[in-house]
Design goal:
about 625 residues; alpha+beta; 11 helices; single chain
Amino acid sequence: MPEPNKPEPKMDSATGTGPSNSTWRLAWVLGTIAILFIGWSFWAGRLPGTPFKLQRDASGKLVPVTTDRFDDTSGTTANLSAASLDASNATISSHSVSHSDNAGFHCRRVAIMNYSDHPLAAQVGKALPDQLAKLNFVEAVEYYPAGSAPPVGSQSPDHWITLDLGNLVTSGIMPRLGIEAAITVTAGSTIAKGQYSMHDSSSPPIVTGLWKATIKHKSTMTGFATDKFSLVARNISEQLGEQVTEHLQTMHDKFGPAPAFHADFYPGYTSTPPQLTFDDWGAEQITSTHGLMFRNETFWRITTTDSVVSLLTDVQSRFEQDGWKTGHFTASDASCHLAMTRAEDRLDMFPIRDAYSPSPSATGDGDGTSAAKPTTVVVHYVDRLSRSELQAAAGRQLAQEGPLQSLAALASFFSPAQRVRYVELLETEDSNSAWVWRTLANQYSNMKQIDKSRAALRKAHWLSKFDPATNDQHAAIKNLAKRLKMEDVLKENMSVDLIREFGIPELTLNEATTPVVVGLDQPAFFYAVDGKGAWHLLNWRVRQDGYPPEHSNYKLTFAHLTKGSSSWGSGTSLPTTDATMNAVTLPEFGKVKLKVEILADERARFVGQVEPN
């Protein structure tokens, strides 16, 4: 029995008789960390729950238009991490594209639609708009997380990007967690595309098609993180962003930007006809917008476990009773496609099994257990402008007299009278542009002016040979010659007489040439014959320089073509808008001195003179 008032013995941590102060402190720290970990786990990975938009400001930066990108309901994307990731990615991609002559790549306004609400897909989708900021031709980006879409009746974007998490499997637990995931991305003029496509006289003059890529990700995360998907999302985002931006840049470089179209080519929204319903098949509307040359474009999706061919056959039968005509029907479950028309309205139905399909493992942590995916059938309806409406809109743009590239894209909509006026504008463009003369050759042929067509094609061919900067015209000119059955035009040999025939000024010793005035970025041609009788074809062009204000606003490029060889320079900055310089030395001839003057109407004036070596 203990003695009265005698203190209890202290517990000694070394002997296990009781906790010391240091042990209590350690327990308190660990408990605090655990509470923080649970708290951060609750908040981490919470991403924008509402759509947001980015647009380029006056400085050229892609910045938020609204302040709700990270609103109160969205929480924060903060994450505590002491982990590393060992990852590998494999990509499978495909691409379909179609276009008319002079079509451009339409990608100023981009909309991103994310079909998965899983935290991994949400983080990948959130990061993609910032990746698109690298593309200076993209002026605005809209992002729509899972469960949202552009408002009904809003204007359609120029380009759609979709994201879908198709598979997610996790194995193990932290501090060693294995993750396998597959994300499918599409980019194109439409949000979905079937096996069959049709381009007719009422189709917009833009590059259409769909690029699709699936990134298969496999990684092992070692360590601890409050959001176990953050490192994986960052890794996939980098891969995905690089591939999407590379694809868009390639398309822009290959086809050039689509021209600016008159406002009449963007009609107001017309509601989807009430009789155009797919409720009997359990359809869910995805988007309904208006845009370039259409009043209404609506997408639905139907999820079914039944035969797709039977579904499409039922729809075909119902719609034919309402006056629709079947233009195409591939009756195969593997690649079936139903295309129907009624006047200018068009309806397409086709199955897809990557995008749109529910992500069965995109709930919870994704344990990889799920039933087989049902088939998703896309329904695509377009209410297009009529041929007469397109012709009227093209006439209003023609009345503005340019730019010629914009008018070229609309040439198929012109009436005979409008076509004559368009040709007059091309003829008054006193240009050594291979594109202008190729376009004239095509228009003359359409107007049954065969002699003029041959002469224009011949000039287009030789101008493309003269100027290395127009190498992209060679294939188009060759194809046009074949279509017009004028391949013999391309077989002529180069000679001094031919150069003179095209009216190119000759450089002679101690005598200034007549001035050559051309538009900016158009070639100014000169030729010379050296002491050995060999011809030399020279051209210069003035281009806008992208380095204001400390550098000149203009750059001078140069190309030199002679028999059997060609060379060119990428350009030097012009010191002023009125400069004289030693341009090039030709052996057996002399030093070419060039005077360049930038005129007020976005043209350049060239005068050449040769001094003896």
